[in-house]
Amino acid sequence: MAAGIRRSALCSVFAVCISTLAFAQEDEALHRFAGDLYRAGAEVRVDDANVEDLYAAGETITVDTIVRESVHAAGRQIRLNRLVGDDVYAAGYAVDIGGAVSGDVTVAGYRVELGTDGSIGQDALLAGRFVLVRGPIAGDANLAGETVEISAPISGSVEIRASEIRFTDGARIDGTLSYWSSNEVEVPAAVTPAGRVTAHLVEEMSPRGTVVGAFIGSLIFLLVIGAIFALLFPRVLMRAQTKFSERPWACLFLGFATTSALFGAILVFATSIIGIPLVPLLLLALPFALAAGYLTSAYLLGHRVLKLFRFESDAGRLSTLFAVLAGIIVLLIVGLVPILGWVIVVLATVLGIGALCALRFNLQKQTSGAA
Question: Structure pTM?
């Protein structure tokens, strides 16, 4: 069923000439490289054996296998149920760590929970609207959210930035505690002695922690998605780069035309009895299309950046991966520029969509000698 949902979403993208990945590449959304596993789909359940590093993206991600090294995941709902031998990097709406993590954990989401059966062997950086620590943390913890609740021991020092901070049965902090909040927090002596507590009271809770958490979440999400995209579709990206080099303005025009066609089709179908059933399908296709355009532009930009540093690139997955990740970082930095930043990011997304459409239409370079 998950594969059917994914194919339906992608096919609706193709119907409005947004993405041509399936026509240009036959790779499935699963790839193994040495011991590393790359999985993508609507519903991803990882129960494969012998996994070193895991890269996963999808609507829901459930990890039911031991990962010997690190986990990189992005999705709406993420649940880790088994041992992770090294670090965890995750971003999603709800992230639930229900197994032991031997290394560091960096997580951003709306609801972030370290469950009673979960644990973190080293440091934790958790950011979200609700951050719940119900399992032990062996290192330091940096927690940011609207509400932060601790009900488990933390062996290191803790920094908390939140409007509401709660300590329940089982909470203990062996190091120092520093918190930033608009409300004074009563820290029980059983949690940590008063001499180890430093309070920073502010008139109104600064959104800085939320902004930082959102940026970290965006970075993790895009890097994971970008890595999977690059490793699944290296030939498509190389061909898109060739088309863009041949006809950059035509790619931009195609991007505007097809993006307008997609949004326009939603409005047109919404006014038609026959077309109304297609509206949810188009709405489902929209994020796929925009993500494909954004990541394609990231590759085009990253390819140029790597060439400036004399990095020799080819059609291999590794060089494609480096180019996509470099482009994502540049676009994220550019996006921080006030007013102009989001305009550039939108144009980049439209340009990427146009480059993919150029593949579908097999757009060729026109020369002066053409008939």
Answer: 0.58
